[in-house]
Structures are given as structure tokens and as C-alpha cells.
Specification:
By secondary structure, the protein is mostly beta strands. Helices cover 0% and strands 30% of the residues. A hairpin with an 8-residue loop joins β5 and β6. The chain binds S-adenosylmethionine (SAM).
């Protein structure tokens, strides 16, 4: 079940340390059809509804070239999430799992990621399918799907480094 912000049986919350400022800046905003966490998909799908990603100035020039990628990786800030649970019960049945073994939106830094299908670019707006966030979710970053991206910069020694002990 999806939560609003309640704590469930056997879940454990902690008192998080005071936040440090990583200098994060929201570069845009995502528009989706969902205004309730109870209706939002748990994971987006590429045949799902068309969503809109608006990029703010001064970042619009950074969109140059994105249109060649069929898929993009989107990072967003799940701004309505609580951030203090270390054990969670996704099924609300008393069975708990560590936060880092889940893709739950409830995490110390509530970053969501999705691979979306790029349907179009209209100025500072990307039209995509495959999101699973609430309307008005802040945008942190976007980049090409890593399986489509070939590094443009020359290789570095670490690119060839292997470990004899690696399986
Ligand atoms: N695809 C991302 C991932 O794997 O990192 C997010 C997955 S998370 C399970 C998706 C759920 O987060 C949605 O079903 C909804 O319940 C919740 N959610 C979506 N947008 C949110 C927001 N802005 N604030 C808090 N919770 C949100």
C-alpha cells in the first residue's frame, strides 16, 4: 500500500542528523496527471500517460542534444516523502525491509529516478512517458539513458582497469 506519512507496524524511524547543504538546486518541475500518492504508479511505464518536464532558466541551453536520445534518465525530488525510516513495511503486514533494499520514496534523501521515453522537445519543455511522480515534483537532473550513451571524452586509464580477484 502507498502511505501518506503514517508509520506502520514494526517500522522504525530515527532522528536524522541536521541536514547539510549539498547546494542542490531544482532545475525544473514535472507535470503529471497524479495529485495523490494513492494513485501514482509505483514505477512508470513507457506506454503510460504523457508527462511534461519544464526546465527553468538559466538551464534551458543545457537541453542541446537531448533530442537524439530515445530514452532519458530523470532524477527528481520526492518532496512529500518522510525521510526518517530505516525499516519499512511496504505491504503493511508487519514484515519490514531496510530502506536501502527498497525503491520506496521514503528515504533519507528522497531522490527518485526513472528511465523515460522521450516523445518530444518543445523549447524548454520535454514530453515524456514513464514517470511515477506527483504533479509539481521538483526536477534535480536529467541525462541520457546510460545504455544509449557513448562517452564523447577520450578514455581514461581507469576505463581499462580490471581486478584479478573479480569474479
Ligand atoms: N521510479 C522512482 C525510483 O525507483 O526511484 C520512484 C519510485 S517510488 C516507489 C514512486 C512512488 O513515490 C509513487 O507511487 C508515489 O507513491 C510516491 N511519490 C511520487 N511522487 C512523490 C513526491 N513528489 N513526493 C512523495 N512521494 C511521491
Amino acid at each position: 500500500m502507498v502511505r501518506e506519512n503514517e508509520i506502520r507496524q514494526n517500522e522504525v524511524s530515527v532522528t536524522p542528523p541536521a541536514p547539510t547543504d549539498a547546494g542542490l538546486t531544482f532545475i525544473g518541475v514535472i507535470s503529471t496527471p497524479w495529485t495523490s500518492r494513492m494513485e501514482t504508479p509505483r514505477q512508470g511505464r513507457h506506454d503510460g500517460p504523457l508527462c511534461r518536464i519544464e526546465i527553468y532558466e538559466p538551464w534551458v541551453a543545457a537541453l542541446k542534444g537531448v533530442e537524439v536520445f530515445e530514452r532519458l534518465e530523470i532524477l527528481y525530488w520526492l518532496h512529500q516523502s518522510r525521510r526518517d525510516l530505516v525499516l519499512q513495511s511496504p505491504a503493511s503486514n508487519g514484515e519490514v525491509h531496510g530502506t536501502f533494499s527498497l525503491r520506496s520514496p521514503v528515504r533519507p534523501n528522497p531522490i527518485g529516478t526513472s528511465i523515460v521515453k522521450l516523445e518530444g522537445v518543445e523549447g524548454n519543455v520535454l514530453l515524456v512517458r514513464g514517470l511515477d511522480c506527483l504533479d509539481s515534483t521538483p526536477l534535480i537532473d536529467l541525462k541520457p539513458d546510460r545504455t544509449l550513451f557513448k562517452p564523447i571524452a577520450p578514455p581514461q586509464p581507469g576505463d581499462y582497469q580490471t581486478d584479478v580477484n573479480a569474479p
